[in-house]
From TrEMBL, chain A:
<dbReference type="InterPro" id="IPR035906">
    <property type="entry name" value="MetI-like_sf"/>
</dbReference>
<feature type="transmembrane region" description="Helical">
    <location>
        <begin position="12"/>
        <end position="33"/>
    </location>
</feature>
<keyword id="KW-1133">Transmembrane helix</keyword>
<keyword id="KW-0813">Transport</keyword>
<feature type="domain" description="ABC transmembrane type-1">
    <location>
        <begin position="57"/>
        <end position="259"/>
    </location>
</feature>
<feature type="transmembrane region" description="Helical">
    <location>
        <begin position="134"/>
        <end position="158"/>
    </location>
</feature>
<feature type="transmembrane region" description="Helical">
    <location>
        <begin position="237"/>
        <end position="258"/>
    </location>
</feature>
<dbReference type="InterPro" id="IPR000515">
    <property type="entry name" value="MetI-like"/>
</dbReference>
<feature type="transmembrane region" description="Helical">
    <location>
        <begin position="198"/>
        <end position="217"/>
    </location>
</feature>
UniProtKB/TrEMBL annotation, chain B:
<protein>
    <submittedName>
        <fullName>ABC transporter permease</fullName>
    </submittedName>
</protein>
<feature type="transmembrane region" description="Helical">
    <location>
        <begin position="174"/>
        <end position="196"/>
    </location>
</feature>
<keyword id="KW-0812">Transmembrane</keyword>
<feature type="transmembrane region" description="Helical">
    <location>
        <begin position="60"/>
        <end position="89"/>
    </location>
</feature>
<dbReference type="InterPro" id="IPR051789">
    <property type="entry name" value="Bact_Polyamine_Transport"/>
</dbReference>
<feature type="transmembrane region" description="Helical">
    <location>
        <begin position="12"/>
        <end position="31"/>
    </location>
</feature>
<feature type="domain" description="ABC transmembrane type-1">
    <location>
        <begin position="61"/>
        <end position="251"/>
    </location>
</feature>
<keyword id="KW-1133">Transmembrane helix</keyword>
<feature type="transmembrane region" description="Helical">
    <location>
        <begin position="130"/>
        <end position="154"/>
    </location>
</feature>
Length: 268, 266
């Protein structure tokens, strides 16, 4: 069957690609060149390069960068230590389970936790500190985002650490490398692919977050995602929304190329 | 392998505490008779009762489950057929192109998917509501099914198919009696992932749902925007329970199929 090309099964799949992969991209690009009345214009692109939007893009980048950085800083040691535990796959499973709880519920929990009367402020009060406004700050936004993304960063890093041949580490140690040198020269380079895919699954969604910004950052933080949602569903300016989306797609492609892995020819 | 040092254990312990604390915090206060997520007054089940008595909420729950099951099922069919089709393509370039196109929706940000689907549905005149939500969920679940099924197909020994053909099996028999049973674990994994994608999705649904139709994520969002309602806590308690049951069920099913496979191979 594999030899005689049977195109039958491919038919619905090709339709799917045409309708939901190619058509949406074409439509987004098309709409980005329309103004509010549906006339052809490049004004949206001019707008995008105005200081307001450029600043928003930069802040969005900055937040996404911070979120990715902190996620990586916490995820890497976790993944590393997990591979050293006895029942590592069971522990990994326990890391994954929270990621299956609905995103909205987890975000909602933080509204209570960071609230004025929440446990964090109750804890601070024990030390004689006044209740702080934690919700609607940069800190709360970044913390919640890191919390949401951390399992997705741990999984690829865990997998690449798990695949690594441990004798390489022993060899490095036997040859006199310190733990730090071993990590820097042996372990980290060997797991860089896992780190890259972790960055991919964190950075791109972090750029386009809009639900967490609304609930936790209370409109303080505007990311590219928030801007798109705003243009589409609030201002009803689909043209401008599509323009931002076009740039988000371009950024996404650049990140994919930067973090792209040499495919080992599995599918050749 | 060296044993973990105490500081490593403390670190891992803290990570687990931080990961689970918010979830248990929600569930803990779902039993609070006071109306807030601080100072626990006394134990009550009234918030759970409120969930079950609210027929609107029950409708939304049913909608969410129906959309997840239906979209998972349709996506699994399209994706499995697609994967079989991709494997049957001889032209390498063509195959690569299809695979890249397949991955577009996996890496695209939710907002972009939602926005572009909104444009698409408006253009072809699909009314926003159940249909648009269902179709979108099918659309973003198909590629993950393909990715789950493809490795199974690639690792399959082609001589199995040749043997079946030699023994007189028709094309249809080869598909239903040889190929499908072999790739079954991949299909199950794909269906399961499609389910979780659908249940967890917020952003895409938020764009393509109209006024009349709502899923659990959308409903929680609008409830959370108005502040703290312990009904949401009760929902999270139920969701957590269901998740744990599904995890155990999934673990059981995959383990059993693994064991069956091993026995067959012996």
């Amino acid at each position: 069957m594999f030899n005689k090309a049977s195109k039958g099964p491919l038919f619905p799949y090709i339709i799917w690609i045409a309708l939901f992969v190619i058509a949406p991209i074409v439509l987004i690009v098309y709409y980005s060149m329309l103004d509010l009345n549906g006339n052809f214009t490049l004004a949206n692109y001019r707008n995008f390069f105005s200081p307001v939007y450029l600043k928003m893009t930069l802040t969005s980048f900055w937040y996404a960068f911070l979120i990715t950085l902190f996620t990586l800083l916490f995820a890497y040691p976790t993944a590393y230590l997990l591979t050293r535990t006895k029942h590592k796959h069971l522990w990994l499973m326990l890391i994954i389970i929270p990621s299956w709880i609905n995103l909205l519920l987890k975000t909602y929990a933080f509204i209570g936790i960071f609230g004025l009367y929440g446990p964090i402020n109750a804890f601070l009060e024990v030390f004689g500190l006044d209740p702080q406004q934690i919700l609607f700050t940069d800190f709360s936004f970044i913390f919640v985002s890191v919390y949401i993304f951390i399992p997705f960063m741990i999984i690829p890093i865990f997998n690449s650490l798990d695949k690594m041949n441990p004798t390489l580490v022993y060899a490095a140690r036997d040859l006199g490398a310190s733990s730090f040198t071993t990590f820097r020269r042996v372990i980290f380079p060997l797991t860089i692919d896992g780190v890259k895919s972790g960055i991919q699954v964190t950075f791109i969604p972090a750029l386009s977050l809009f639900m967490i910004t609304r609930l936790i950052a209370g409109n303080q933080v505007i990311t590219l995602g928030t801007a798109i949602e705003q243009q589409f569903l609030v201002s009803q300016n689909w043209g401008m929304g599509s323009t931002i989306a076009v740039f988000l797609i371009i950024i996404m492609v650049i990140i994919m190329l930067l973090t792209g892995q040499k495919k080992g020819g599995r599918i050749q | 392998m060296k044993k973990l040092s105490t500081s490593s254990k403390v670190y891992l312990f803290l990570i687990f505490v931080v990961l689970y604390a918010p979830i248990f915090y929600l569930i803990f206060y779902s039993f609070n008779s006071g109306g807030s997520m601080h100072n626990f007054e006394s134990f009550t089940l009234e918030h759970y009762n409120a969930v079950f008595e609210d027929s609107r909420l029950i409708t939304i729950l049913i909608n969410t489950v129906i959309v997840a099951l239906l979209s998972g099922l349709i996506a699994t069919i399209i994706g499995t057929l697609g994967a079989i089709g991709i494997v049957s393509i001889k032209d390498k370039k063509m195959r690569k192109t299809l695979l890249s196109l397949n991955n577009v929706l996996i890496v695209s940000p939710d907002v972009v998917i939602g926005a572009s689907f909104l444009i698409l549905f408006t253009m072809i005149g699909v009314k926003l509501g159940f249909t648009s939500v269902l179709v979108s969920h099918v659309a973003f679940s198909v590629p993950i099914v393909v990715l789950m099924v493809l490795p199974k197909l690639l690792e399959m020994n082609t001589s199995l198919i040749d043997a079946a053909r030699d023994l007189g099996a028709s094309k249809r028999d080869v598909l239903t009696r040889v190929v499908l049973p072999y790739i079954q674990p991949g299909i199950f994994a794909g269906f399961f992932l499609a389910l979780t994608y659908s249940l967890d999705d917020f952003a895409v649904t938020f764009f393509v749902t109209g006024n009349g139709f709502s899923t659990l994520s959308i409903e929680i969002y609008s409830m959370a925007r108005t502040g703290i309602t312990l009904t949401v806590n009760a929902i999270s308690g139920l969701v957590f329970l269901v998740t744990i049951l599904v995890v155990i069920g999934y673990y059981f099913v995959t383990n059993r199929s693994k064991r069956v496979n091993e026995e067959v191979q012996r």
